[in-house]
Amino acid sequence: QTISGEHGLDGSGVYNGSSDLQLERMNVYFNEATGNKYVPRAVLVDLEPGTMDAVRAGPFGQLFRPDNFFFGQSGAGNNWAKGHYTEGS
Known about the structure:
It is a single chain. By secondary structure, the protein is an alpha+beta fold. It has 4 helices and 4 strands. The longest helix is centred in the middle third of the chain and has 9 residues, at 49-57.
């Protein structure tokens, strides 16, 4: 949200800013899509779908491309060792 605001983007990825400075280096964080819309250059990865659902339901959830979400089904129960040695290995 912070970076989107700094570059003058609304929750749907449309530029509503008023300064050329906001457009400068936009390609560092965003790719320009059709219709003057910008999408984040991000890949979101987790072991469980719940966190991804929370991102999608948030105010900027529609900004992300659906094919950039990767998640498992089991999760690690917030246990680093389980995620590292069993579920995530």
